[in-house]
Amino acid sequence: MHNTAAIEHREVSPPAPGALTITPPARRGLTRKGIARVLTMPGQIVSVLVLVVPLLVAFYMSFTDWSPTRGSLFDAGFTGLFNYEELLIYDTRFIYAVIRTLLISIACLSLEFTFGLGLAVLFMRKFRGKSVLFSAFLTPMMILPVVVGYTFWMLFQSNGPINQIVTYLFGAEAMLEWFKSSHLAVLAVIITEVWHWTPLFFLILLSGLNAVPENPVRAAVILGANPRQVFWRVILPMLKPVIIVAFVIRSMEIIKLFDEVFMLTRGGPGSSTETISLYIYKLAFSDFQLAYGAAAAFIVLVGSLLLVHLLLTPVRDELLEGSH
Amino acid sequence: MEPKPLSLPLKLVMFAALIIVLFPVFWITMTAIKPPTDWNASPAIWVPSEPTFINFKTLFDPDAIREYGVGGVSQSATKAVFGSLTASITATLLSVAIGLFSAIGISRYSGSSKATPLIILSGRMFPPAAIAVPFVIIFSNIGLIDSYTGLIGIYVAVTLPFSTWMLKSFVDDLPREVEEAAMIDGRSRLMAHFTVTIPLIKGGLFATTMFIFILNWSEFMFALVLSYSNISTIPVQLAKYVTATAGTLYGVQAALAVLAMAPLIYVGYLIQGHLARGMTFGAIKQ
């Protein structure tokens, strides 16, 4: 193995005369750079073709008044920043959708984190059937969002099982019309999301907890810390990178919230559960205001990139370096 | 530290959580085997009076449900199932193949380009709604709208960051020395990857393939906006399911939902140890 290291080294700087006692095998094939290029080329082509090009088209379009009836994209009238101005200043439906998406995100992330951490801590204990229960608790995250949305739509029906339980506990007058009240509809969306994605937090936090080194914990115990102090002062700070990664990944996903809401409420009643994605979808694909929708999409894109950038800063190196 | 056993109150908490986690799955499965009389009963029926597979049968034979005196389904789900299988499997294989090359490229030659991994990762931050709009326009101009080719193209693009980063984490776990040893034996660098790297990450490759399949199978929005009459997928069919005569066919819809989720739950259990790795782009390992 030492010899291989020497060969690797040879490429970078010429060896001192006489330093090598063996002759390296003749190189065949491509150079390092060539291989790197060949290997990453397909991925780059796909990314450019299917992500960069559409984004440039959307960016161009967002400054026009193009709609499908106007024919070619080049026939569109250039309207400058009109779409952006309209969205950011006058379109209250858009502004509310942004605020609503952020509020839903905050509610979901904090609940998912709390429940996920609670479960993960439970799973640090010893009990029978642990591996079966572990699998069972992961089930929700394996189910398609559309199916989750549909299932919860059925659960929340006025004559559905959730109302049956509510009625059983609080009497018939307490029965809830989940999809007729704007507050309850938002609550239904949050409950659905939390059910669906708490397992991800559970999974990530559990692997984080399992990786916590024993020595600092032992030291704290020897120094007289009680279990609560050990958890809050020793274990939790060591989990910080894992927690940040979990939050970043989940917030990236939840900003795009669409499938579940589409199945649950289609944004209703009124526009009370409209998320950003759902609003853009309606703009572009029911109202055919494609240029306006593109502008909205761009605002969201820039906003979410900024948000992710902010959240990611403390862990960027770890995420990029992987195991190194 | 020696793990402590669960106390009784904690056991109860765990039990309650388990009920909450499994109840929706129980409910959709029960609905799928309910006869039409039980579908929309008030109050809801928890366990079907006479379990039946008629809902599943109706999915592929729209008139089957008529024996219960209920109007048939307007559309058979055959096309959607075929569409989901075609699009998901093709896109998964392409995404994993391209991702595998990129992963080796990034993991082993990262000195060459620091930007590549970030460019690929940034694809994940775009809200689908943001790219769906230009896609529909471009695709209608080049004739890819309402075609599987177009849908597969998008699926590959959307899942590529996941396959690249997940596979990268497996390649990272492999010591470089194994490839160098193969090169000592006279293989070229590229051949060393084919003969050594790829066989050694077989398990990871399988997990990644299954994970990407889950993502593709679950995709909804692109399929929804790109499909008109030629193509369909299960999630789109589920969203669109309306009957010719009756209101909503709960049981039939539930049957399709069960059909859609069953393979994913199975595949998910197979790779449960790697789910976190996939979701977090390799940052979290189990």
Structure classification of chain A: mainly alpha
What share of the residues of chain B does DSSP label as strand, in percent?
under 5%
| Spans where pLDDT lies below 50 across 5 or more residues of chain A | 1-15
The quaternary state of the protein chains shown equals heterodimer
Mean pLDDT of chain B: 86
Would you report the number of β strands of chain A? Answer: 0
Distance between the termini of chain A: 20 Å
Largest sheet of chain A: none
Instruction: Report the radius of gyration of chain A as a whole number of Å.
Output: 27 Å
Low-confidence stretches of chain B: none
Q: Would you tell me the overall average pLDDT of chain A? A: 83
Instruction: Specify the helix fraction band of chain A.
Output: 55-70%
Largest interface by Cβ-Cβ < 8 Å:
A-B, 114 and 115 residues
Rg of chain B, rounded, reads: 23 Å
**Number of continuous helical runs of chain A:** 14
User: Helix proportion of residues of chain B, in percent?
Assistant: 55-70%
Beta-strand fraction estimate of chain A: under 5%
Structural classification of chain B = mainly alpha
Shape of chain A: globular
Order of helices and strands of chain A, N to C?
HHHHHHHHHHHHHH
Shape verdict of chain B: globular
